Amino acid sequence: MILQMLLGEIDLLPALGQLFGLSVLAFLVSGTASVGYRWYFREPIPRGLAALFGVAAVALYLNTVGLLGRVIGTPGTDPFDAAGVGVDLLTLLVAFVATVPGRRLGDALRADLASAAGAREVNASVGRALRGVARLSAVELPAADEIEDMQSHDPVPAEVKTELGGKTLLFPRSNREALRDRLVTRLKEDYGVGYVDAELAADGTVTYLALGSRLAGIGLTLGPGTCAVAVEADPASDAGPGDIVQVWTTPNATATAEGDAGEAPSSPRRVTTAELRATAGETVTLVVDEADAAALSPDERYRLVTLPVSARADQEFASLLRGVDETLGVVQIPEGSPLVGTTVGDLESAVVAVRRGTGAIDALPGSERVLEPGDSVYAIGRPDVLRGLEERANSR
After folding, report:
1. Cα(first)–Cα(last) distance of the chain, in Å?
2. Mean pLDDT per 10-residue run, the chain (396 residues)?
3. H or E element, residue 283
4. CA–CA distances in Å: residue 364 to residues 223, 326, 344
5. Which of 53, 197, 351, 387 would suit a FRET pair with 147, their CA atoms being 20 to 30 Å apart?
């Protein structure tokens, strides 16, 4: 009954036309806001923010054109009558729903815009012209054969280098350090690159570029005096990477290894204590001390027993390094290096350890610790910072 009364007080066709038109307005505004947000911040716009832009545009129209039009166009009428307010609320609700596909479409079209404000890459000649006529910075990448591979990282596929070679990317105008950060983020997000080491000239030209895949394997997380060994074993059901396990022989494996198949199986014995790193079927990768590696045989089958210990700080630290731009590097200090005689505090990166030529390790050395010939510096920093530190150590 109430719905019939409301419908009887309004003109249905103009109301439906307004509802459709304002829904399209909310769709377009949210899509435009999504494109602009993605272009500037390099990430999708939050759902609430896209809805706010779309609904705010519709609310602005209803408050100015709609409400004001009813007051001026029909003097003496109540601008807040139930029928008008009901239609406005329904319009706002439909506009809110329309912002959802608008946000998705705007985010999907971000890479297809060819205008100067939204272009992501252009050829070199256009890039040089844009520096003078637009608030954009054009970054020219070196040729594919000039893109280096980062040491201690898996190389990126050759197709990625070919795609990036000679390309010019556009960014909002900023200083060189901020421009470098934007370039690193762009290469990681759009081309699947794990680590980027880049140097930029004052005009935006990339003078050095090295790429690497995300850290894979276990080599960089092996401590001094340890090694990784793959054995055939039956891991405990609750064992996972990073767990400390005891390695035990099995009776059958011991008898077979000794060549005494006719003898009674001997009792199991503990071979060593190791750290579980990975499992693939019945093949288990263990990290053990170098002295215990010879005790493990590829012809034997072992049984692993998980020890009830808490999570290790070194494994948590290695996991954190995999999610940030900084990485761990080792820099050797040779005889006659300019870094001989300097202190840890003089270096431009965080030093977590220094290994002497004798093998002794100084963990978390103080800033006054003097570097000597034969030292190995374990430092944490961005790839370009570590590369600069290595160049300083080996310059003459």
Report:
1. 93
2. 46 74 88 81 78 87 65 52 71 86 79 44 49 64 89 81 86 82 86 85 84 63 74 74 82 50 66 83 84 84 76 60 71 90 89 87 89 91 85 84
3. strand 283-289
4. 15, 17, 10
5. 351
Q: How far apart are CA 254 and CA 249, in angstroms?
A: 7
> DSSP labels for 151-206?
TTSPPPPHHHHHHHTT-EEEEE---HHHHHHHHHHHHHHHH--SEEEEEE-TTSBE
Angle, in degrees to the nearest 10, between helices 12-41 and 47-61: 140
Only one residue has tokens 């601008």, namely 79
CA distance 140 to 106: 27
C-alpha–C-alpha distance, residues 244 and 246, integer Å = 7
Token pair 């170098």 is found at 290
Please state whether the predicted TM-score (pTM) of the whole model is above 0.85.
no
Which residue, 255, 232, 228, is CA-closest to 302?
232
The kind and range of the H/E element at 128 are helix 124-133
Query: Per the structure block, which two tokens stand in for 9?
Result: 């007080």
Note the helical H segments in 1-46.
2-9, 12-41
The Cα–Cα gap between 50 and 293 comes to 58
